[in-house]
Specification:
The protein is 48% helix and 9% strand. The protein is built from 28 helices and 14 strands. A hairpin with a 5-residue loop joins strand 10 and strand 11. Helix 25 packs antiparallel against helix 26. The longest helix has 37 residues.
């Protein structure tokens, strides 16, 4: 073996490997020596910079400050990002649209928008108005950079001394930032956003520009935004002509325009005006003698109100108008809307007094109500308890957890994949990671089997969660997107409504089931006219017919099951004695949110209650106990006649059958009255208005020829034969009352009470 090794040159190869090893060792040794020499040379060079004593202390302080400053900058930037996302110059710089709004019957209900050439320049706003504003809201406005530190400290000291909130510390810039971009919720997150937005406004605009924006856009009560609109509303004159007393009254409205509005509470307005006059003296803007005359001659209020302004709805409709008018080159517009003022009043009366009277005991301070037709036409909207206190529209912008009311979409996805309302399901569910569903009363389900409709009526969390796993959570999300609900994300507890949804979206989602499965995206505008009276948008003309996005049998099955929720389940307090109703309750954990969303054959409505800062309400508050009765009381007033369509999937209600028989009899005895009661006359008139002039002329000629052929003379306008007293349109007292417990004027009596 050894001979073979040497014959193959093994010794030479061994020698070569040893040489390579020696070369590597020497190279590493030389490299290490060079590194040590370089290190020593560097230490010798930098030794001259070594600090000792007080110089070293200052260097350490500077180094630590730089480190902390860099970290603080990163933290501030992270906190500022949400505020920067809220900043949208389009909200206050464009303002090119000036829109007059009409209700569904063509009556003017309000205005929105501002034309720049119509705004009063700052130079023409009286000095008294500016001084009254600054003396009351921000005396150091021209001295700070968005945040008045001294003013905040002074307000804090006064509040501590009085053991109450008697002074506000927000600067005028902070108030403008809140009015333009934020809601009025009292939370640390909102306050941080407000601070950063104030700095941003101060960096982008001059003090005069900020003051002008504040004077133009602050809400002043009565649906008036800005001092010019408020002066026109309260005094029926331009702000250019106001007296010192009138300027002081305007200056007192910023804090609480509804509370101090003179047309609502004149004594409170007078007391507040005197406070502003005293502020003018304390700030050094006027002497005591100068304000004495204003105290002796208070401002005289001119009542210019025509109707109660549906401000929540107008804000929503104004946003829709801007989208519809984009790119048309028209900026002075008139919009016919979908709102029904009688339903709007019923909505206000149903929810606002409830919050004011019972909110404290139930530990809730906010709510919203949306009502629409089954095609998505919004008829009423309440976006909060007090528009003057906060213009944030909870109905359109607050994304709140829907709780169990979201289960409707899970069950609908199940019906789309072969389940039936009578399909047997088990009161149990698999786990999802570390999460396992439990029912409202606790526990992971009894394991008992029951039909699908009963699980929905009992609002079992276990069954809903298991359905979402069985049919696929992706399919549930896809269904919500078809219905117009945005932002739902996949999660283990998705079936229980763990992600936010707005009341407007939720109502539109239920409307699809109410109308038999056609898309029912909410809308507020039906027609749009330019300043010349020309029709530039018609929903009926310009929008495509709504597509069928849910199969009719699925919609019918959901209506049948949701009717069981009302008759046999958690929403029995929502039951109506004169028609079928269907819907679903919702209660999020906490409870932080309580809901009822439901519909009849005519209207769909949602009720949400909670707290703006997301604090839990009183334990035991549920959608079935609190929200469903409010929905019932609204719906009882909203249905003014019994000619209510039957919900798909349900048999006609006995009262609807009686009404159909009554109308059939009226069609035989008094066709005109029958047409009026069923809306056929209005529909015919609306259709005739759409005819071209030439077509209308031809029809008139044809009608005249037919009259002559029949030997009839055309009657002059205004000489129609009056209807008999017993059946004359509008003489409701002479008509039989087909519904027990219902009056002709007020509609069905509510069986519940908001007291």
């Amino acid at each position: 073996m050894s001979d073979w090794f040497f014959k193959q040159g093994g010794r030479d190869k061994l020698s070569n490997l040893m040489g390579l090893d020696a070369k590597i060792d020497s190279t590493l040794s030389e490299t290490g020596s060079r590194i040590r020499d370089a290190w020593n040379a560097g230490q010798t060079f930098f030794a001259r910079f070594q600090l000792t004593g007080w110089k070293r202390l200052l260097n350490e302080l500077a180094s630590e400050s730089l480190t902390l400053g860099a970290g603080g900058f990163v933290v501030l930037f992270a906190l500022a990002i949400p505020a920067f996302n809220e900043f949208d110059e389009g909200r206050f710089l464009t303002g090119q649209y000036s829109v007059k709004f009409l209700d569904k019957d063509g009556n003017e209900i309000g205005k929105r928008g501002i034309l720049h050439n119509d705004a009063v320049p700052l130079e023409e706003i009286p000095e008294s108005v500016i001084k009254a504003t600054m003396a009351t809201e921000d005396r150091r406005f021209f001295e700070h950079y968005g945040i008045d530190v001294l003013g905040t400290v002074r307000a804090l000291a006064e509040n501590l001394r009085a053991n109450d909130v008697v002074q506000g510390g927000s600067s005028l810039t902070q108030q403008l930032a809140k009015n333009l971009f934020l809601s009025s919720e009292r939370s640390l997150q909102r306050k941080i956003k407000e601070l950063f937005l104030s700095f941003l406004l101060e960096s982008r605009f001059t003090k005069r520009e900020i003051l002008k924006m504040y004077l133009d856009r602050a809400y002043m009560g009565g649906g008036a935004f800005g001092v010019e609109a408020a002066s026109q509303f309260y005094f029926n004159k331009s702000v250019r002509d106001v007296t010192l007393a009138e300027a002081a009254l305007l200056g007192g409205l910023y804090k609480a325009p509804t509370k101090y509005a003179p047309h609502i509470n004149l004594p409170a307005a007078r007391a507040r005006t005197n406070e502003v006059l005293q502020n003018l003296v304390e700030a050094g803007f006027y002497s005591a003698a100068e304000v004495h005359e204003a105290r002796l001659n208070p401002a005289k209020i001119v009542d210019t109100r025509v109707t109660d302004s549906p401000d929540w709805f107008l804000d929503y409709a104004f946003e829709e108008v801007q989208k519809l008018a984009e790119g048309k080159g028209q900026y002075v517009l008139t919009a016919r809307t979908t709102i029904d003022l009688s339903l709007q009043k019923a909505a206000d009366d149903a929810i606002v007094p409830f919050i004011r009277q019972r909110g404290r005991s139930l530990r809730l301070n906010s709510g919203a109500l949306v009502a629409m037709e089954t095609d998505g036409a919004v008829r009423a909207m309440v976006g909060g308890p007090d528009y003057g206190e906060s213009q944030f529209n909870r109905a359109t912008s607050a994304r709140r957890q829907p709780g169990s009311s979201f289960k409707v979409y899970v069950y609908a996805a199940a019906l789309e994949r072969g389940y039936k309302p009578t399909t047997s399901v088990r009161d149990a569910s698999r786990s999802c990671g570390r999460w396992s569903p439990s029912n409202y009363g606790g526990g992971g389900g009894s394991g008992a089997r029951m039909p699908l409709w009963m699980a929905l009526a009992k609002s079992l969390n276990t069954v809903a969660a298991e359905l979402s796993f069985a049919v696929g959570r992706e399919n549930v999300i896809e269904l919500t997107q078809r219905l117009g609900i945005k932002g739902i994300r996949k999660s283990c507890s998705m079936a229980l409504g763990d992600y936010g949804i707005t009341p407007l979206e939720h109502t539109g989602g239920f409307a699809t089931f109410a109308n038999g499965g056609k898309r029912a995206l909410p809308f507020a505008v039906t027609e749009l006219y330019n300043s010349k009276g020309e029709l530039i948008y018609s929903r009926e003309r310009d929008e495509p017919a709504p597509p069928q996005i849910v199969k009719p049998d699925v919609a019918a099955g959901m209506n049948w099951m949701m009717n069981k929720v009302v008759t046999d389940g958690t929403a029995q307090r929502a039951g109506l004695e004169f028609t079928h109703s269907a819907g679903k309750t919702g209660t999020s954990s906490g409870p932080n949110d309580i809901w009822f969303v439901g519909h009849t054959g005519r209207y769909v409505a949602s009720v949400w209650l909670g707290n703006d800062d997301n604090r839990p309400m009183a334990h035991g508050n549920t959608g079935g106990q609190i929200a469903a009765p409010i929905w019932h009381d609204f719906m009882a007033v909203a249905h003014r006649d019994m000619n209510i369509p039957t919900l798909p999937g349900l048999d006609p209600h006995p009262f609807q059958l009686a009404e159909q028989e009554r109308i059939a009899e009226l069609r035989r005895t008094d066709p005109a009255l029958a047409a009026q009661l069923t809306g056929e006359a209005e529909a015919a008139a609306k259709a005739s208005r759409k005819l071209p002039d030439a077509a209308r002329s031809i029809l008139r000629e044809m009608a005249e020829d037919l009259r002559k052929a029949a030997g009839l003379e055309a009657k002059p306008a205004g000489t129609e034969t009056p209807a008999p007293p017993a059946t004359r349109p509008g003489n409701r007292a002479a008509l039989p009352n087909p519904v027990p417990g219902r009056t002709a004027e007020t509609g069905p009596r509510a069986s519940g009470s908001l007291q």
